[in-house]
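Exercise 3.2. Students should predict the tertiary structure of the chain below and write it as structure tokens, then compare their answer with the key that follows.

Predict this chain's 3D structure.
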Amino acid sequence: MKIVTLLSDFGLRDGYVAQIKGTILEDCPDTTIVDISHEIERHNIPMGSFVLETTTPYFPKDTIHVAVVDPGVGSARKSIVVECETAIFVGPDNGLMARASEKSGLESIYEIRAQEFLRKPLSSTFHGRDVFARVAGMIASGRRPGEVGPRISELEKLPISPPRLLEKKLFCQVLHVDTFGNIITDADDKLVRRIPLEFGEHVNIWLGKRKLHAQYARSYSEVGKGALAVLLGSQGFLEIAVREGSARDKLDVNPLDKLELRF
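Answer key:
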């Protein structure tokens, strides 16, 4: 029995998600379908990338992940299947699946071109159903990823520069803002352990010419109500949080914004 996960910005008010599920089940009726999220902000590729990257490692090997945050649907962007050591990803080649694929041990990338893998009639505005769901269902039923079309050499990636730690300064970017307003940066746990900082010490957060004061903490409860905390969060990245408040409201940042932390 195959597991197929779904991630999209479709929401649940309309029938779009049900149509995707029905298309998958039509080709592989015994598939187990799991919803990762359908509440990704509309057209927010960085948000979808983060949720995909941090969620897919918790699924069994060879799970098929269908990801659809696709503002370029109907354009020249490629439709692809990414075969990895521990998973298969199906979706648009717009940066959405790059970080998750690399974390899963990227092996091969294929562009979806074979007509038998496309649902007929093919909508120019709903590739989630007519391309990606159809491909996922056929792979779940036993078809090989390489059958969908020619192999390509690389994925489109998000415009994220690697975080840099220079003495007592950390230069990083916002990866995601979660439902609590916590700001999750691209500084991972390995980099965080190199920061010359003890718990309880102060951190200055610079946003251009704005400076905010925070405290380096183990958990949200170690700072006062309404205070800023900098900590290693549950997703394995450095977070900026406000206890019982919203760091996003306080800092007014969005995904891919640049941050500088001084210790």
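Discussion points: The CA atoms of residues 84 and 102 lie 8 Å apart. The radius of gyration is 20 Å.
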